[in-house]
Automatic annotation (TrEMBL):
It is found in: Cytoplasm. It comes from Amylolactobacillus amylotrophicus DSM 20534. The keyword Cell membrane does not apply. Keywords: Cytoplasm, DNA damage, DNA excision, DNA repair, Excision nuclease, SOS response. The UvrABC repair system catalyzes the recognition and processing of DNA lesions. UvrC both incises the 5' and 3' sides of the lesion. The N-terminal half is responsible for the 3' incision and the C-terminal half is responsible for the 5' incision. Interacts with UvrB in an incision complex. One of its GO terms (biological process) is SOS response. Belongs to the UvrC family. Residues 220-255 form the UVR domain. Residues 38-115 form the GIY-YIG domain. This is UvrABC system protein C. Transmembrane segments: none annotated. GO terms for molecular function: DNA binding; excinuclease ABC activity.
Amino acid sequence: MFAFFVFLNKIRQSENRKEGVTNLASQHIEHKLSLLPDLPGCYLMKDLNSKIIYVGKAKNLKNRVRSYFKSAHEGKTAHLVSEIVDFETIVTSSDKEAFLLEITLIQKHKPYYNIKLKQGTGYPYIKITNERDPKSEITSYIKKDGGYYFGPYPNVYAAQETLHFLQKVYPLRRCAGHLGRPCLYYHMGQCLGACFKEVPVEEYAKQIKKIKSFLNGNVAEVKRKLTTEMAKAAQELRFERAGEIRNQLHYIEVTVEKQKIISNDHTPRDIFNFYVDKGWMSIQIFFLRQTKLLKREKRLFALADDTDPIEEFSSFILQFYNQKNHVLPKEVLVPKGLENGTLGEILQVPVHTPSRGQKIALLDMAKENAQLVLEEKFRLLELDNRKTLGAQEELFAALGVPYGHTIEAFDHSHIQGTDPVSAMVVYTDGEPDKSHYRKFKLKGEYEHQQGADEAANTREVIRRRYTRLLKEHAEMPALILMDGGVIEVNAARDVLVNELGLDIPLAGMVKNNKHKTAELIFGEPLAVVQLDAKSQAFYLIQRIQEEVHRFAITFHRQSRSKNALSSKLESIKGIGPKTRTKLLKEFGSMKKIKEASVSDLQEAGLTLPQAQTIKLTL
């Protein structure tokens, strides 16, 4: 039976720890949700160990990420949300870039809850093969085979339709080749004729040049021709054909529009940019590998008043590559204002500042992300300040007492009057100060005291706490809070004023029938303090009440467990209080006492008969 209670106690402790982490995570997530931008990008969900468990993309990060925590879910999504403790975001310039970045992040981190995109790319490339008679095709893998690859394309169907368009407008080889006769595609104008003749290399090169130009975004002429053809088909009432051309235009736009996430070449690049505000520097580093944004790192640190941001940023880049696992790329991109030549000479790689095109767009995106990270930090600090120091100032103002830095709060715990304990938590400027928490085993100093006598328990703990502070000439708290109503507050006031002669503001935290914080009582006579239930002061009272209750309950469970062990030993004849104390101090649990040998028990200070009695009894 004892083992069962120990097991149950461990489960409760585990649940309490998990609940505590969850509550902290929830507050942190609530703050971060309020700071999300209305921009496209990717989000990375993290678990308790900061491991990325899910990667997603969104046209609007604010709406998408909030939906995880503000809506009801079932199945896999419900399990995912239950494990999320934190998240981070990466802003992109378009929904398409978010698609492409999502692919890379999933491939890199292989999150547990991402079912798709773990193998290959998940999204296709358009490839021109490296053969004597090349052809264009769809593939999901990049190989070092000398072929030309374009993509990846997030819209698979659009990529397929674009390939069909290219095969019609810029045909290469469509058949198996060397058939000895013209194939069907040749008759349809979609094959240059490798099936029955030798096609000149120059003719293929001419077509490939046009395809590469088209897939690199030079589609204006093609779109003009298609638009004209679509208008003509509509005028001739050939609406089905007009619809086909309209769809084709859409597929071209979706597939071929410029992408900043994908580079035009395979040069490994690192992109650095920064943002400075209010004495803080935020740095973003983008790592481009194999034409893709492989990963992102961020740094935040305070700047000294006399520090030049450019010099600090330059120094950071040099120190960055002196660290372990930071391999130099073939090129480093930085914003204007740096000594690129000096940096390049030290790093021994080219350091450039782009002025136009895809590279400057990536540099701008890095700066935008750096700015968002820093703004998020400032707003989180502001929210934390309002939640802590601001909340405490609001509380003292509502009570009408001068502001003080320290609040001490008390709660009792017992089961039907047995094993009564009290606990005290301390909040300094609105934040828990755990180094000053205290536990009290109630001794029953007052006459006729029972464990369930809340007034007697309050008198004992208040007397013990503040008598000690008086003897030590220690600083008194600015406010005392009792987890309870009129009985507890009056009992505490009686000891403070009539016995100890102390004048410390004292209030009671009253709960409703659902055991939730309902109101604060204060003054003489006691009256309800008018606090807005949505105010930061009220939220602070809730946090203090939940914390002191948690601390008291945890202490009580620990005390009960030790008492259960002690009572088991009490039933053994010849084992007195001093011997029980020796055993508890030496072994700490009934299991270890049971496992101990007779010689182990003797080494703990027991006589041979006592040790033998314990081994025979347990």
